[in-house]
Each structure stands twice: as C-alpha cells, then as structure tokens.
Amino acid sequence: MSAEAPRADKRPVTSEHHGVTLVDDYAWLRADNWQEVIRDPAVLPADIRAHLEAENAWCDAAMADTVDLQARLVAEMRGRIKEDDSSVPAPHGPYAYGSRYLEGAQYPRFVRSLRDGGPEEVLLDGDALATGKAYFHLGGVSHSPDHRLLAWSLDDKGSEFHVVRVKDLDSGADLADEVPNTAGGVAWAADGKSFLYTWLNDNHRSEKVFRHVIGTPAEADVLVYREPDPGFFTGVGKTQSGRFLVIESHDHETSEIRVVPAADPAAEPRLVAARESEVEYSIEDDGADRFYILTNADGAEDFKIVAAPVEAPGRENWVDVVAHEPGRLILTMIVYRGRMVRLERKDGLPRIVIRELSSGAEHAIAFPEEAYSLGLVGGYEFDTTVTRFSYSSPTTPAQVYDYDMATRERFLRKTQEVPSGHEPSDYVTRRIFAPAADGAKVPVTILHHRDTAVDGSAPLLLYGYGAYGIAMPAGFSTKVLSLVDRGFVYAIAHVRGGTDKGHRWYKDGKREKKTNTFTDFVAAAEHLVAERYTARGRIVAQGGSAGGMLMGAVANMAPDLFAGILAVVPFVDVLNTMLDDTLPLTPPEWPEWGNPIESAEDFARIRSYSPYDNVAAEAYPPILAMAGLTDPRVTYWEPAKWVAKLRELSTGDALLLLRTNMDAGHGGASGRFDGLKEDALEYAFALKVTGKA
C-alpha cells in the first residue's frame, strides 16, 4: 500500500440554524441531481464518481491481503446454503403457491401446483428476468383471487422505485399493463379485475394510492387516496378474510386506516378511526360483522386488542378483547374464521397465543431455549384451522411449523438444511443482562463455539441496532458461523430504541432519550469484557442503517473500546439530513429523532450526538463503511462525508475505509450469492483487525 488514502476536497458550505452557524466542508459530495442518480447512476457528477471510485480502489488495496480469505469465506457461507432450496407451499383454493431456487441460481422461481399434488408450474423465473442487469429485485409477487393473473414488481436500480407488471397465468403471456413508480406491492380486488397500489413521488414518498384496472393504461388509473402530510407513509394491504382492502397512513408513532370493500373496489374509502397523535392501530376482520384492532390507544403502551362493529368502527365503539398488560408487548395478530393468533413478547422472549373468538379461551405455543426467534408466517386462507409459524435460535436452524389450532398439534414442515453440516451441540447460546448507568438491564444474546475459552482472550463481534421499535431476533444465521468457528464470540446487544423489552424500551431510546441507545451499547460491550467473553480492544462493533448511526456514535464516545467498526449503510449525517426536508425520509423521521428545523431544542440535541458533526481529533479504531449509490434511505453521501472527515481529523493511523456499491441501494448486492461477497469483505475486515485473518 504505497499510495495514500484519498483525501476529499474541502469546499465549505455555510448555513445558519437557530443562531448557530454550521460549516460543512464535504457537502459537495451530495449530488444536486440525487433524484436522477437513484434512478440512473450514470448521471452521477464526474467529480463525485471519481472520489467514490478512488475510495473503492483504496479499500481494495487495504484489504488486498485478505483476498484469499474473502474467497474462503464466500465458499464457506455458500456451502451452508442449500442451493436447490424451496419454501413450504402455501395452499390457496385449488393451488399451493411457493418459491424455489435452482442449483446455482441467484434469484428464486415462483411456482404453484395443484393443492393435492401434481406437476409444478413456473409463474416467474427470477434468474431469467435478471439477465443482463447489474441489480435486480422482485418487490412483490401476488396472484389474483381467481388465480388467473399474477401482479409482480421489479426494481433494477436499487432505488426502490418498482414497476408493476401483470402476467396472464392461463396463457403465460405478459399483459400490456405496466405501472411505474410504485412501492412494489398491490392489493387485489375480489374479482381479480383491478388492484390498489402505492405511488411514489419524485422525492420517493408514498404519497398516493391508485386503482389500476387490468387492460387499461397506468395514465388512466383512478386516484383513491392522497396523503396530505409529507411526514406520513402510505401503504396498501388486505385483511386475512379477503373482505377488505386496507389503506394505511402512518409515521413512526401515529396511524390511520381506511378500508374499501374488496367486492366493490370503486367504493369510497371508509375511515376506521381518525388519526390521533401517538395512537397506532392495525385491523383484521372476523369475516362477519366485527373488526379486531391492535392498538396502543387509551395508554395501552404495550398494545391491546379491541373489537368494533364493521359498520361503526370509530374509537367510541372500541371494546377491549385482549386487555393491556404492561411488559407484554403484542407484536401482531392474524384473525381466522373463529380464531385469533397473536405474537407477543414478554421478558425479551416471544410466544404465540391462540384465542377462540366465541369463548375467549386461550392457549400458548412455547419453546424451552434460553434465546430464540418466532414469527407468524400466515398464509392465504381464512377458513382454516391451520396457522403457520417459524422458529429458530442462534444454535437451531430455522424451522417452519404448521399448527392445528383445534387439535393443538404441531407439524414440522421444514428444517433449514446446512449442506456443509451443522451440529447444534457444538455451540453455546446464552442470554445475559448488562447493567446500564441508569440501572436498566440490557439483554445481550451470545453465541460461541463450545471450544472457545471464556477467559477474555476471544475476539467478539457485537451487533446493535436500536431504532424504530425494531427488536433484534435471536435467530439462526449461517453467516456468523464463519466467525464463530474461528474463535469469535458473536453477541447481539438488545439496546433501547428497539422493543426487545416492550414499548417502553423503544420510547426510552428515541428523541430526547436517544443517547440511551449509544450508552446501552457501550455498557453491553463493557459487561462482556467484565464477564470475560472478550477484552477491551478486542471487540468489533457492527450495525447498519440506523444501527450505523449507533456505530458512528460509539466510535466518538469510546474509540479505545473497539478493535474495529463495521458501519453498513450508516445513517451518520443525522443533523444535515433532518434539516433537509426534500430528502425521501426526512419528514417521516421527525417523530423518531425530532425536527431540528422547527425546534431549537431538537437541533441542539441531534447536533450533540450526530456522528458526522462530532468527529474529533482523536485516535479512531479501524472503520469500514459500506454504502449503496442508489440508496434512497441512507443516501450514499452520508458515509462518504463521514469517512472523509474521519480521515481528516483522526490522530491515529488506523484503516478508515469506504466501499460503495455503484450498482445497488440500501440492501447491497441483490443476488443471494453476490451478497455473500459483501458479507465476506466485512468479516475479513473483522478478522484482520483482530489478528485472526
């Protein structure tokens, strides 16, 4: 490595907010034509492209000594993937629908067969559709209720602008229907002749819902709903019964729902309950005369379930069905004919509860492991006694079960295969609690090989997120085994900002309490040192997106605690982004972080922790930041600016690297094997900085 690391030009841009002058030396890395860039990367200005490509070349040079290691990691990770894998078919009417990968395929095929068996029919071939494209993503695949048509969407830039197309399943022909600028999903009317979809404006906001009639041009689509608040997302869906199309408007703490009868898609959308600040709700129906509503109304912080008449669903008619229980967070529900299934979390662990709607009798599905992940899979059918769920733990590969709600029998339908072999007894999973400075107990999930000594000598990868109320599941990951089998301890810090310990855990990690997320992560790292799972300076921290903000914050707070930091599409330029209301996610994000445009207090608070604004003259640990050029969520310039400033101010000589995928967005490379190359780079970095490469 004889060449010097790239140094971005300093072109100061000055702005003033609430009497404070901000100077941003690297603002020029934000392309003025960013809206065009996420649709067509070729129009990126030449000087910005040159800088990003120089950073990529420098990253390649810095990691050149790990090229063979990266190849081995890819081979290991790929060896744990069953290449000819398939989903458990989901029955619907005369058919069963599913997906299947062929050996060597990057993308799935979507298939169906007769419900009781028979030859498989290929509905879509992902690899064929992706041919010749640097990036390809299927946004949604949805068959019509009469099984004649298939609506599917694709994004070939990584920008998350999806084009919806329609296929005639009888003839196999693609119809002329093509609907651009959508969020990707559709909600079919009962007769299969039209569907609702969400339209994205130039700022990538889901502003409008349209109805598309099959066989007509997109220009003729009828506006069904327009969301007036730029801070709200809009989406479409359908109740499990299929009776109602659902139009939901929401930000991170408030929601509002309108319904349209699926049998009368041209009807005026009917409001369920008017939005109230910080009141959230979602709905299902019983197929007859009642809505069931999951909500935090009336101070139900951890949510409750109420019922209301379909013909009069307003708040004044809500009656509790499953009362609020503090500390038991109800995550989601599905209503079938005569029964309700809900997924809830208590004491950091999930469980599934079945309720008989007629009697109110309940029973739970429980599991014995110390840490595990559960998920409701659902399905297409309403008149059924069978519900489907998934289960895994850090040591147990994913399993899919069908559960008969009437007989209480569970049927294992699939266990994730690890072709290269996996013996769960070779690994140890533990759940410990790290004491935070204010007395809170931060759950930490731990995975290590049984032969790894717990004496402080092991390197450790500590993962964290902590935002939007998203909990980090203690599930199975084949990828992390490449570290664990090399003597790493793998840990997840379930920091505040997620709902791992209930909704209060989320509220205690947002807005004015955001710094709890960062101090919780540091507390978790220090407790792992105290418990001799690792040592100070032997920890690699990892987080992505909002978890990348966490990475930037702890790099500023405790740089000597970490051997390295992996920041994947990191949201690190928080203040500048929240001050720019033209960016895709800024207005919807204000409830999460605060609005620094309107509030001097929010401005000061965000400025106090925003990673980019708090880079200082200190010795930073090695850092690898990963970015996507067409990312509409965390724009590429955030990590680019951050690394430029780190390289300018850091007083040490640690590696500070930026890798930008010039053909992808927030999720990185799209193919299931291409994505492994990015994982391998990240893990090679972790091994390199801990001396294990």
From TrEMBL:
Gene Ontology biological process terms from the UniProt entry: proteolysis
Report the superkingdom from the record: Bacteria
Instruction: Tell me the protein family, please.
Output: Belongs to the peptidase S9A family.
Q: Where is the Peptidase S9 prolyl oligopeptidase catalytic domain?
A: 476-692
Q: Does the keyword Cell cycle apply?
A: no
* Lineage summary: Bacteria, Pseudomonadati, Pseudomonadota, Alphaproteobacteria, Hyphomicrobiales
User: Which Gene3D superfamilies would you find in this protein's record?
Assistant: alpha/beta hydrolase, Prolyl oligopeptidase, N-terminal domain
> Which residue ranges does the record assign to the Peptidase S9A N-terminal domain?
10-414
What is the protein named?
A: Oligopeptidase B
Q: Which UniProt keywords apply?
A: Hydrolase, Protease, Serine protease
Q: Name one Pfam family in it.
A: Peptidase_S9_N
Matching entries from SUPFAM superfamilies are given as: alpha/beta-Hydrolases, Peptidase/esterase 'gauge' domain
| MF term (GO), any | serine-type endopeptidase activity
